[in-house]
Amino acid sequence: MNPVLPRSKSGAPPVVVQVWGDAALFTRPELKVERVSYPVMTPSAAIGVLESIYWKPQFRWRVMAIEVLSPIKQFTQRRNETTDVASLADAASGQRRLDTVANRVQRNAVCLRDVAYRIHAHVELVPGADKPEAAYRDQFRRRVTRGSCFSQPYLGVREFTAFFSDPDDQPVWPHTEELGVMLHSVDHSTTPPSFTWFQAALNQGVLHVPQHGIPAGEA
Q1: What SS3 string covers the chain?
Q2: Is 70 exposed, middle or buried (0-12, 13-18, 19+ CB in 10 A)?
Q3: Exposed, middle or buried: residue 56 (CB in 10 Å: 0-12, 13-18, 19+)?
Q4: 35-208-219 Cα angle (round to 5)
Q5: Which tens digits make up the pLDDT trace of 7-40?
Q6: Which site in 32, 99, 125, 182 is 20 to 30 Å from 7, CA atoms measured?
Q7: Cβ distance 40 to 156 under 8 Å?
Q8: How many angstroms separate the Cα of 165 from the Cα of each of 12, 43, 111, 147, 200?
């Protein structure tokens, strides 16, 4: 049974997509050396999946809830990473290449195995949008049904591919757990980008996402 969620400003219910994969890694930000995953998908990871399926500059996604459909199972993996990070200016110009060989480090990661979720999200129009909200929702549903995407979605990191489909009636895994502070959203209009957070909790298998996050110093 779908969770009871607020409707959009136009009165429409959230769109829903089912997502699954063999593995996932939704990194907790407070752990710097080892990568340790939250036990559930984060809202920022869910937005990444939604934008991989359908993105337009005329709207943004607002995740309302994420349902956990499979029991939480963990495994440990050693991954090669690089400490050489390009700035936004370097990335935009393409003039500097990352030296991954000279700056390679190995880190342990605590990942998730055999994951499955249902994402519930609203389309929120931005000023200047030239179509009604319903047009973007309908296009998203058609793309999900066809299996179309702009880029292959992934579950936290690119090596963990995400698959998606229309939602089915698979029951939610009825697990309750306090998850601690979780990233809510990133505002790229500021320099540097600003972040907001929220106190996350899994309630009978459902992660409810508040409409607004709070700044880092207040979380």
Answers
A1: CCCCCCCCCCCCCCEEEEEEEEEECCECCCCCCCEEECCCCCHHHHHHHHHHHCCCCCEEEEEEEEEECCCCCEEEEEEEEECCCCCHHHHHHCCCCCCCCCCEEEEEEEEEEEEEEEEEEEEEECCCCCCCHHHHHHHHHHHHHHCCCCCCCEECEEEEECEEECCCCCCCCCCCEEEEEEEEEEECCCCCCEEEEEEEEEECCEEECCCCCEEHHHC
A2: middle
A3: middle
A4: 60
A5: 887 788 999 999 999 999 999 988 766 889 999 9
A6: 182
A7: no
A8: 20, 18, 23, 7, 26
- Are 179 and 43 spatial neighbours (Cβ–Cβ below 8 Å)? no
Interval 50-106: pLDDT, tens: 999 999 999 999 999 999 999 999 999 876 665 555 554 454 455 556 555 555 677
In this predicted model, what pLDDT tens digit does every residue of 41-61 receive, in sequence order? 999 999 999 999 999 999 999
Residue 4, class by beta-carbon neighbours within 10 Å (0-12 exposed, 13-18 middle, 19+ buried)?
exposed
Distances (CA, A) of 187 to 29, 47, 101: 17, 13, 32
